[in-house]
Structures are given as C-alpha cells and as structure tokens.
Amino acid sequence: MHNILYMSSNISIGYDHLVDGLAKDGYAILDDFLSEQEVRGVIDVINFHLDQENFKRAGIGAADDFQLDKTVRGDLIKWIDPTDAREPVQQVLKRVEELIQYLNRSCYLGIKDYECHLTRYPSGSFYERHVDQFQHSTNRQVSFICYLNENWQKGDGGELRIYLEEDQHIDVEPVAGRLACFLSESIPHEVLVCHQPRMSITGWMLNQPHDLSFLLN
Ligand code: OGA
Ligand code: NI
Prior knowledge:
The chain has helices at 9-25, 36-51, 87-106, 210-216, and strands at residues 27-30, 56-57, 76-79, 113-121, 127-130, 140-147, 160-163, 169-172, 179-183, 189-191, 198-206. With 217 residues, the chain is an alpha+beta fold. The strands form two sheets. Strands 1-9-6-11-4-3-2 form a seven-stranded antiparallel β-sheet, with helices on one face. Strands 5-10-7-8 form a four-stranded antiparallel β-sheet, with no helix packed on it. The longest helix has 20 residues, at 87-106. Residues 1-9 have low confidence and may be disordered. It binds N-oxalylglycine and nickel (II) ion (NI).
C-alpha cells in the first residue's frame, strides 16, 4: 500500500464518525467521501471499461465454489489492479488507504490490505441478502462501497438494505460521493432492485496481504 503522510483535520472528523459507527453499530455512512470531480472521474473510467467490454458478470462464493447465479446477484464487475489503475481510480484508492490508516490507528482491526472492483448494476438487477465473508475464508474485515450515482432520485431503487438486530433494517440510497462501510463478517445486507443503472467502487479491507489470502481461499 502507498504511505500516506498527512491527514487534514476535516478528514479525521468524518473518519471519527465512521470508527464510532463501526464499533457501536457495525456499520457507518459518510457523505462526501468523494468530491463531485472524483465521482465524475471514476464514472468516465467505468464508461471506458464498459466500451472495452471489460466488465464481467459477478459470481458468488470464492475460488472453487464460484458460481454465476443471476437470481442471487445481477451486477457486473471489473477488479481493480492498484498497480495499473487509471488516475481517477488511483485517487479513490488513496482515500481508501487514508481511511485504512485511520482505522488501524483508532481500533484493532489490523487491516493489512484491501481488494476492490468497479461495479455496475444494470436496471432491473439486485443482490439478495448475504454476508460478505466467505465460508472458508475469514480475511474480509470491513466492506466498503463508494457510490457514484449523480442525480439519484427516490424511486430509482438500488438502496443498500442493512439488516440490524430484531428484524430492523435501514435503507441507504446509493447517492454520489457517499461511502457505506460495515463489518463483513456480521452484517447481513442486500441491494434492492435498481430501476436505473447503479455504479460504485466496492471493496473489502483484509486482515492478510491480498496475495496470501488469495492462496488460502
Ligand atoms: C456486495 C454488496 C452492496 C452495495 O458487493 O457484496 O453487498 O451497496 N454490495 O453495492
Ligand atoms: Ni455484500
């Protein structure tokens, strides 16, 4: 990971709120994690990769029990290679790395690495209720999603539904610039049916270096 040498006081106010939320409730939402310009930059990258047909149907389960099942999830993804990402994506990775440094200083998650992909849900698609930690692999600690949907309206669907205790839930609209984070092991969630295409960067903070955890899958 890149080293981050500074952090503005503004950032730490938002990040405090994230740490508190993760510790108390297992999830947290932060608006304006990305600026409008950063959002626009990543949308352009997504459109570029769509044109190049680089997006693939997402699967469920890790490695050998990998399956494609449209009835569970309908999103298309492109994994991000941090060594080969375009500038606007690099910018977001820098923010994610800042956040990881902050988390590692303020709580004991021991994040060593992260993995993430560009994501696009076509209109009509969804992702059924699930948790993000695979059965045979416990390396995913914190899930994070940076939403990229400008002008998202009520009625466009695609809310992230986070399930809480005692049959409660909250719905998070995937509006541009917003970051949603939650504990990968314990928070069930789903993506409600989208009535517009829905874009994000979706990732996981890992408690092992990425390469090793891949071998252990
Ligand atoms: C996932 C997921 C939620 C979202 O990709 O595992 O649950 O809001 N995404 O995109
Ligand atoms: Ni998920």
